[in-house]
Specification:
Radius of gyration of chain A: 17 Å
Oligomer: homodimer
Order of helices and strands of chain A: HHHHEEHH
DNA sequence: ATCTGATAGTTCAGTCCTGTACTTGTTTAG
DNA sequence: CTAAACAAGTACAGGACTGAACTATCAGAT
């Protein structure tokens, strides 16, 4: 088995991810959010605390702070102090926030789905397995 | 075959790509370039004209202009007018530029390789095939 | 020759994003 | 109990990035 060209594969995967983002960004903007804000909304249920969120999203803490502020003032998330640890803030989706997240994820799934559909169902499952293994 | 969760797979792949970038960024900075500047350098041989480069890299033209300027003043690329079309500029790597690119790509390949190594050789080849199909 | 529409690239203004340093609150060692 | 160490989150400054508008050149039609 010849060794594969890592940089080639990397470039392909990077391009795949980027192309989806570029494609979806305008529609998301119409929804009132940026792409990374959508990712933040999508992880909120699983990780309600900003510090954990920052780690999960691989973004620096100040970035999470900034997005949180914007999303809060847009009415998409709520913030409350964690009563068991006063350093912590707990973020949660508002009704509007959940609605926007759902729509945004649908747009993302549509764009990514157009690419995944070039694979057979079995290949799609295989792709998922491989990416899971790599992380 | 159950339908896969597109958003899940998307999130995984996004995270994979991002984690590599985040991991490599500090070392690249020591080399004197940003991550996206490396991608630009890496595509320069194949696409010497800024407009084509912008499309290949999925970035807006002004961004390519800005990076080109910085890379030129850092001595990593050269610019010359295309004599057959005075609107066009032809970019090319300098000796230093090629050296930095080679090192940068090696860092990238190392980081991405650590993830790919969790797959068998056959799976790696399969992954490449699948990503190629999707683009 | 000149006009028209298209293309290459840049400028600029303004937003986005993040590194550094800080405040506030919690835990732990003594 | 207190002080040092640590953790959550923020403020701010400054660099990174991009959309809109612009200049210069080209190619084709009249």
């Amino acid at each position: 088995m010849a060794k594969i060209d890592l940089n080639k594969v990397w470039a392909l995967d990077y391009r795949l991810v980027t192309s989806v983002i570029v494609e979806v960004a305008p529609a998301l903007r119409e929804l009132g959010i940026e792409c990374k804000e959508l990712f933040l909304l999508a992880e909120l249920d699983a990780h309600p605390h900003p510090a954990v969120l920052a780690e999960a999203l691989l973004m620096p803490k100040p970035t999470v702070t900034m997005y949180s502020k914007r999303l809060q003032s847009a009415g998409f998330i709520a913030r409350e102090l964690d009563s068991t640890d006063l350093r912590r803030h707990r973020l949660s989706l508002t009704g509007d926030g959940r609605k926007v997240m759902t729509r945004g994820l649908a747009l993302l799934a549509a764009a990514f789905g157009r690419r995944m559909n070039r694979l057979t169902a079995a290949q799609q499952a295989e792709f998922k397995t491989l990416v899971e293994k790599m992380l």
